[in-house]
Amino acid sequence: MSRSELDPLDRKILMELQDDASQSLEDIARKVGSSKTPVWNRIRKMRDNGVIGRQTVLLDPESLGLEACFFVLVRTAEHDPDWQDRFLTSVRTRPEVMEAHRLAGDIDYILKVRVTNARAYDSFYQALIRDVKIHNVTALLSMEEIKSTTILPV
């Protein structure tokens, strides 16, 4: 199911689910101007087609003591499959890494890392460079989160 196959009601349902997936089917139906059965059938179809993935809960990092958010820019001189496998395994198994992206341009990878403080970031960094050889790492501390959302523009 592609974006073009979603009709306006599907989009309204998706926006409601993104806003609060814990709301009742009855509430979603009322807010989108439909009844429960058609809304449930549409949700089931979108799940079956992969439009809707897993459901989860969003936690507040600061209330859990994860007050430091670093964006880590990684440059490497290594591009062979063995290095990449080790790097990806290291990144994917570290709970501090919230996001990881391979980039085009001068920077090879960017990581979003959540930790309690600079000392915890250093521990993360030391573990990462023990796992793989990295040419250059630049860590940028986020001073203020201006916008963060999980809501996609459907």
Automatic annotation (TrEMBL):
GO cellular component annotations of the record: cytosol
Signal peptide (from-to): none
GO MF annotation, one: sequence-specific DNA binding
Residues annotated as domain HTH asnC-type: 6-67
GO aspect biological process, one term: regulation of DNA-templated transcription
CDD domains reported for this sequence: HTH_ARSR
Pfam families the record matches: AsnC_trans_reg, HTH_AsnC-type
Keywords for this protein: DNA-binding, Transcription, Transcription regulation
Gene3D superfamilies linked to this entry: 3.30.70.920, Winged helix-like DNA-binding domain superfamily/Winged helix DNA-binding domain
SUPFAM superfamilies: Dimeric alpha+beta barrel, Winged helix' DNA-binding domain
Protein name: ArsR family transcriptional regulator
Species, as recorded: Pararhodobacter marinus
